[in-house]
Amino acid sequence: MSNFQFPTDPAVQAYLRALAGGFNPNLDPTQTDAWAILQGTLTAYGFSGADLLSLQNFIKSEIINGRNTDQITLDLEASPEFANRFPAIIERRQKGLPPISPSDYVSLERTYQQLERSAGLPPQMFDAAHYDTLIANDVSASEYGNRVQQGVIAANQAPQETRDMLLNYYGVTPGQLAAHFLDPAKVWPVLQQQFAAAGIGGAAQRVGFNQQNPVSEQEAMRLAQLGVTPEQAQQGFMELYHQRQLYGTLPGQSQTGLTTDQLLGAEFGGDEVTKELLQRRALEQQATFQAGGQFQQTQAGTSGLGAVTR
Question: How many C-beta atoms lie closer than 10 Å to residue 37's C-beta?
């Protein structure tokens, strides 16, 4: 039983004839009407480029050879161009799911896209293959709408600092983040490390470390690639923040300030040279302050240096 339906309304047929460009000299008037309807239908179903041209030539040949509409429909559905444009129709048939017509297929694609736009997802975030998969798996418009909303909710639940860093580091918008949660299998490889790096940058912002030692995207990404989690990063940044008098240039002292990269290496990356330098500075401050209140804070901070291990 064929699912490929052609418009029968006279007004629609007239419109499609206009789209087809009128009479074709190789067809008689009756054939021209059929040609116009079929050509307009192919365009409405989203065929374009080489596939559209190939099918136009195919249909024209079928009409000239006296094929009726039913036979043309069967032949058309068996064409590789049809399978390429509507792969889910064939897949649904193989799965034993209810048949779907090309017009319903196109309608579902447009509804999916509208739901994404309404939720603020970026245009063209998902390609045609994404919609083919949804249709092949019998995902209704209402179910997809629920998935989109769940993706938006999940994105909104990410820490604000992480969302800020995703935007600052990579230009990732809330809509793109929602798309990540909507289809993790597709988008996750793209955003996985970016999301981890943004979480690390957000942790530095949250504990105040970023105020004097901004963590760059490259530094945050390096920590993410080392396997540092945002939770571990927050612990380490907090320790570094409490040790800040050890790595800055203090009034009356000749010590040189350390870079953010050195500090991250000492805390997370096994930079033993910088770690030993910080320990020496702690001893210098011990002598300077004679175990006073400020040293006690420094001593507590020094004990945590490099505590995050992997």
Answer: 23
What integer pLDDT is reported at residue 249 of this predicted model? 53
Q: Are 232 and 201 in contact (CB under 8 A)?
A: no
**Predicted TM-score (pTM) above 0.70:** no
Calpha distance 75→55 (Å, rounded): 11
Longest dimension (CA), the chain: 107
Beta-carbon contacts of residue 161 (< 8 Å; ≥ 6 apart): 201, 202, 203, 205, 206
* Better-predicted residue by pLDDT, 28 or 276: 276
Q: Which of 39-48, 135-144, 251-260 comes out lowest in average pLDDT?
A: 251-260
State how far the Cα of 172 lies from the Cα of 194, in Å rounded to an integer.
9
Gyration radius of the chain over CA positions: 32
* CB distance 143 to 102 below 8 Å: no
Cβ atoms of residues 221 and 197 within 8 Å: yes
Give, as one character, the DSSP assignment of residue 208: T
Q: Is the dihedral of CA 115, 119, 120, 121 positive or negative?
A: negative
Q: Write the Ramachandran bin of 138: left for phi over 0, alpha for psi from -120 to 50, otherwise beta.
A: left
φ/ψ region of 33 (left if φ > 0, alpha if ψ in -120 to 50, else beta) reads: alpha
Q: Residue 212: which region, alpha, beta or left (left: phi > 0; alpha: psi -120 to 50)?
A: alpha
pLDDT digits (tens, 9 = 90+) for 192-244: 778 888 889 999 989 888 777 788 999 889 888 888 888 898 988 888 887 77
